[in-house]
Design a protein that fits this description.
One of its GO terms (cellular component) is plasma membrane. Belongs to the SLC41A transporter family. It is a multi-pass membrane protein. It is found in: Cell membrane; Membrane. With 455 residues, the protein is mainly alpha-helical. It has three domains: 128 residues, MgtE N-terminal fold (Alpha Horseshoe), CATH 1.25.60; 115 residues, CBS-domain (Roll), CATH 3.10.580.10; 175 residues, SLC41 divalent cation transporters, integral membrane domain (Tetracycline Repressor, domain 2). Helix content is 66%, strand content 6%. It is built from 24 helices and six strands. Strands 1-2-3 form a three-stranded mixed beta sheet. Strand 2 and strand 3 form a beta hairpin. The chain is elongated, with a radius of gyration of 30 Å.
């Protein structure tokens, strides 16, 4: 298999395109099929429609399925319109059941039914089963292409079984052992099989300490479990402990990317609108609720300033430090939000304790506040006003604002998590706005109390 580097990529791609455009089938196949499927996808995505039609003609459905199953869903929908019906069916047939289910789940019902009709009955039933599970659960992301063995089987017979079924399985590093009722009773690794006595039974070499997940378990919990145990795959069982599928590490990587994207969208108050392929209208519609809500919070901020209008009229210079107080409190709160959300996502809070994290963030806020206060007490008299009480007012305000902001940024996601909601919905803009309001209240309250010294 050829590995493309920055040095040879351009020339190699040119050779492939030249062979494709010249319709030199053998030359194109020799060059193209030597590449890793992901490199094939990079080249395929740059082709125009006429060039793609040649690729369909030059590659068998099995060869093209390696490309098709790793394309983005939007690209899959576009490509499927360019393929003949029989070619489409043959491509789908050579894909793994979970990849087919993911694709059909995004298709319109009539198109999905048409494709399912062309598949083998057993394959179609497996895919329908996967589609029946709720999105985001282990049942929805598991694959049906796995190898299970019986505990009474001989090791040598299992090796023969591997030779026959291995090419169609998604992974063979773990074999799952079932009894006569198809209940999961053990697991045996490929390594254990290879070094075991061929005449031994599987039950003599298998491990009965099997970690499994239920079909309805949340995919994020499955990802955390596989990360904890460093699994390459994990079995999926029903409520009656019947083995129905496995989840492999490549699917978990997709889940982690999906969950990270979702959390990023929540923190940025742009859930569902972080994908660059989303249209401007759809992106705006998904962002609008948060923006409108935060606009009303902004009106509260304006009202806070209005409540201290007399203070501002007497000491106009106080207005110059409003952005500083607001930005500093908002930024500090967002940092604490990120720490809290990450701790909840990774489960580290359970080990270290919520109280310890709140105390740690509060202590951090105090130290940041002290640092900023000292800097401002030095700078303000030099650049703004020689009245040291103004510098003290700004400095002490920033100290209290940052201390409070870190606590707010930490506690809000924890409370939301207790309510069984995604803590990431305590978005950055939301925390920022809340801390802006609190920071201004602290600032003007202190300034009002020190009015006689500031005049």
């Amino acid at each position: 298999m050829v590995k493309l580097t920055e040095q040879n990529r351009e020339q190699y791609e040119k050779s492939i395109l030249d062979a494709l455009n010249a319709e030199e089938i053998n030359a194109f196949r020799d060059l193209f099929l030597e590449l890793h499927p992901m490199d094939q996808i990079d080249i395929f995505n740059d082709l125009n429609k006429d060039q793609r039609q040649k690729v369909y003609a030059f590659l068998s459905p099995k060869e093209f399925s390696d490309i098709f199953e790793d394309l983005e869903v939007g690209d899959q929908k576009k490509i499927i319109q360019e393929l003949e019906q029989q070619y489409t069916t043959d491509v789908i047939t050579h894909m793994y059941a979970d990849d087919i289910a993911d694709f059909l789940g995004e298709m319109k019902d009539e198109n999905a039914e048409e494709i399912l009709k062309g598949l083998d009955q057993d394959d179609a039933e497996d895919i329908k089963e996967l589609l029946s599970y709720e999105e985001g659960t282990s049942g929805a992301i598991m694959t049906k292409e796995f190898i299970s063995v019986r505990s009474e089987n001989l090791v040598k017979d299992v090796i023969d079984q591997l030779r026959q079924e291995g090419p169609d399985a998604e992974t063979i590093y773990y074999l799952y052992v079932t009894n006569a009722k198809h209940e999961l009773v053990g697991v045996v690794s490929l390594r254990d099989l290879i070094i075991a006595n061929p005449e031994k039974q599987v039950e003599d070499v298998m491990s009965t300490r099997v970690v499994s997940v239920a079909t309805e378990e949340d995919q994020e919990d499955v990802a955390n479990l596989m990360k904890k145990y460093d699994f390459l795959a994990v079995p999926v069982v029903t409520a009656k402990n019947k083995l129905v599928g496995i989840i492999t590490v490549d699917d978990i990587l997709d889940v982690m990317e999906e969950e990270a994207t979702e959390d990023l969208g929540e923190i940025a108050a742009a859930r569902g609108a972080t994908d660059v392929n989303v249209s401007p209208i759809k992106a705006a519609s998904r962002r609008a609720p948060w923006i409108v809500l935060l606009m009303f919070f902004g009106m509260i901020t304006a009202n806070v300033i209005g409540q201290f209008e007399d203070t501002l009229e007497q000491i106009v210079l106080l207005a110059a430090f409003i952005p500083l107080i607001m930005d500093s409190a908002g930024n500090t709160g967002t940092q604490s939000l990120a720490v809290a959300v990450r701790g909840l996502a990774l489960g580290t809070l359970e080990k270290k304790g919520v109280g310890k994290m709140i105390l740690r963030e509060f202590s951090t806020g105090i130290m940041l506040g002290l640092l900023c206060a000292v800097v401002l007490m030095i700078i303000v008299p030099i650049f703004y006003d020689p009245n040291v009480w103004l510098a003290f007012t700004v400095g002490i305000s920033i100290f209290f604002s940052l201390s409070i902001a870190t606590v707010i940024g930490t506690i809000v996601p924890l409370v939301i998590n207790k309510l069984k909601l995604d803590p990431a919905i305590a978005s950055g803009p939301f925390i920022t706005t809340v801390n802006d309001i609190l920071g201004l209240m602290v600032y003007f309250s202190i300034a009002t109390a020190m009015m006689d010294l500031l005049l």
